[in-house]
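ok, trying the design again with the full structure, not the truncated one.
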């Protein structure tokens, strides 16, 4: 088993406020350094190769605005283990298995259940769900909302 990370487990190597020191210490403590692959940021044009190389997509996020990688993972037909956030349920629906956030035990049990189940992923459900998301449709909806908020021209006064 290999764990692919789209971050690096060293301070200052990742955007934002993520501090990987505890994760790095845990990897060292567990003696799994050889099984952890730190990819860092993956260019968008290469993501399909990454998804194709994986058997399960896991997101332990504890907060999220919109989870684009979940849509990509569903489109790739991957089984998904996601922390139980409203946005994850909104995005994935029945195409994922959920675990309580901040529960490493439940995360591990969910991944194990997916990995040992013959019906863990239903690629048809995932593909249908991912097809419901479209940048073109999203932008069109944003333009419609913006247009509806635009002040109407007053009729010419006589």
């Amino acid at each position: 088993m290999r764990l692919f990370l789209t971050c690096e487990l060293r301070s200052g190597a990742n955007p934002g406020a993520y501090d990987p020191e505890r994760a790095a210490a845990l990897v060292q403590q567990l003696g799994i350094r050889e099984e952890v692959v730190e990819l860092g940021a993956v260019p968008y044009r290469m993501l399909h190769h990454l998804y194709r190389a994986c058997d399960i997509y896991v997101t332990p996020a504890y907060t999220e605005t919109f989870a684009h990688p979940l849509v990509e993972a569903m489109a790739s037909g991957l089984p998904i283990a996601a922390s139980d956030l409203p946005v994850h349920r909104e995005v994935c629906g029945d195409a994922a298995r959920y675990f309580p956030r901040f529960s490493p035990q439940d995360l591990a049990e969910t991944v194990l259940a997916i990995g040992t189940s013959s019906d863990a992923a239903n690629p048809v459900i995932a593909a249908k769900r991912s097809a419901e998301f479209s940048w073109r449709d999203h932008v069109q909806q944003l333009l419609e909302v913006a247009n509806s908020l635009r002040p109407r021209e007053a009729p010419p006064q006589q």
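Keeping the full-length input from now on. The CA atoms of residues 55 and 108 lie 15 Å apart.
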